[in-house]
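Instructor's aside before we start: the two examples that follow are unrelated to each other. I chose them only because their records fit on one page, so don't look for a connection. First example below.
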Amino acid sequence: INAEYGESSPLASHFVALDNGIFKQSVMPIKAMIRSDFNEEIDMHPNTNVLKLNLNKTVIMVFRSATAFPHPIHLHGHKFEVLKIVPRKYPLCPNGRCVWQNIATSFSPKLSDIAKQPKSVVKDTVILPAGGLIAIRFITDNPGVWAIHCHLDQHLEDGQFLIMDEGGYRQSHFPDDYPSCNYTGRIAMQKKTACICMDHMNLYKPKGIKSYYQCSEPHLCGRTQYTEEDIAIFEKIKAMNVKELNSVQDVVATRFRPEEMETWGNVLDTIIDGTQEKLNT
C-alpha cells in the first residue's frame, strides 16, 4: 500500500495505491458498504480504494511512503502485529519528497522471513516513517467493512485511506436509531467529483501530482472547473512580464466570483512560482 503526497490548494493532496496500482485520492462510498442494498456500480465512488480479503487468512500488509513526514496508520476491526519498521533511506527529503524504497530489498531480514516470525508487538495504530516502510500481520477473522487510514484528520479527509472488505459481509437489519448513510439519510455522504488529475489542464501542476493520478477534489479536476476561455486567460498570464504580473490579481478579480478567488489565487501562485527567475531579475 503506497502513500503519496502532492502540494495543492486548499489542502495537501494525499493519494493511495494498492499493489502498485494507480494512485487515487480516495473517497468514501456514497452510502455504507455494509448495507445489503449497496450497489457497487451506483454507490461506489470510482476513486474508492477497496481491498477485498477472504476470511480466515493470514495477511501481511506493507505500507510504503514517499512523503517527508510520518503518518499514524490506524486499522479498524483488528489488532495487528508490527513485524518491521524501516526508516527512510536518506537523511534528507528534498522539496518535501523522499525516495521510494524497494520493498524487495529494503527489509532486513527479507520480508518473506519476517513474515514467518512467531510473534511481535500488537497494536491498532503504527507510525509509518517519512520515506519509510512498515510491515504488519493480522488474521481475517472479523468479517465486516473496515477502514485503514492515516489518523491525521486532514490527511484522512484528503484521501489517505482505504476500505478493507473482509469476507464480503453485508447486513440488512439495523437498529431504528442507526445513522442512515443512503441518499436521503441523516448523514448522507458528500458527493465528490472524479477525474484524471488536471485532465485537459497542464497549466496548474501542484508539486508531486502526476497527470495520471485519480483526483477527487474539484480544484484538482481541471475539466470540471476550467473552460477553454479560462485556459486562454492562463496562457496570457503565463506570457506576462513582471510589470503585468503585478496587476494580475486585478485581472482575475474582474473575471471570477469572490468564492472562486481562493482557488484562482493559488493557481496564480503556482504560475508565479514557475517564473520565479523572471521575477527575481
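Example two begins here.
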Amino acid sequence: MIRRPPRSTLFPYTTLFRSPEIIRGYYARTKCIKDLLSKVIHLTRGRCQIVNLGAGYDTLYWRLKDEQLSVENFTEVDFPSVTARKCYCVKKAKVLLESLANGDGDIRMSSSELHAANYHLVSADIRNVTEVQQKLKEAEIDFAVPTVFVAECVLVYIDVHHTDALLMWISDNFPSVVFLNYEQVNMNDRFGQVMIENLLTRGCPLAGVEACRDLDTQRSRFLNTGWETARALNMMQVYNYLPAEDIARIEKLEFLDERELMEQLFLHYCLCIATKDGHQLGLSKISF
C-alpha cells in the first residue's frame, strides 16, 4: 500500500492556528466526501472518473489510493499558478511520483500540468467552459463513463451565470454524473453577512453568494440546469450523520469551549449532492 506522505511534502508549510470547531468541520467535510465517493466507486466497481474542480493542494487522490479506492481517471483542475506549484511539490516528492507511475508508462509533466496513468493535473479557468472541455479531453476524460465532479468552496467565488453555464454544460455532456458541492449557505442572516464582510476585507469577494441564500437555492442551481436530483444538508446535519464512535473520538482530541459557536458555524456551510443517471446505475440513491 502507498503510504500517504506527510502533508509537508505537498503543501507549503504553514503555522496557522485552527480552532477546534474549524478542525471538526474539516473532518466532517472530508470524511463525508470520501464516503460518498467510496459509494460511487463501489456502485460502479471502479469504472468511474473523478474531476476535482479548484483542487488546490488537495491530497484526495492519494487518500483514496491509500484505501484501495481506485478509479479509471482522476483529474484535478485549477488556475495555472496553483497547478504549477502543485507540479513542483509532486515532482519533489519521490513517493508521490512513484505512486503516480504505478508501473504503467511515463509521467508527462510541464511547468503547470501533469499527466500520469490515471491521474491528471490540468490548468484552466473553470469560468471558461470551452477551456474546461478542452482540458478534460486532454486529460482523457471519457464523457460516457460515470463521473463525479467535486467542488469545495469553489463555486461561491464565481459569478452565478458562469456557474450555471458550467453546471448546464456538465449535465448536457455527461449522461451519468454526480456533483458534490461544499460551500457556504444561509448567508442572508447576520452571521452570514459578517462572514461576507470579513472575506471582502481580505480581498475575497463571494461573487456567487446569490446561490448560497439557503438550502433551496443550493438545490435549485442544479435542478434549473438540467440535473435530475439535488439534495443539500447543512454541516450540522452532516456532522450528526457521522458514526457515534467517530464523533466521540474527535471530540476527545481537543477541548471545545463553546459548542454554540460550532453549531452556528456549521449551519452556514452545506454539502449538496446532485445527480443525473442516464445509465440508470442508481446514482440518485447515493446519500449521506
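Confidence is low (pLDDT under 50) at residues 1-9.
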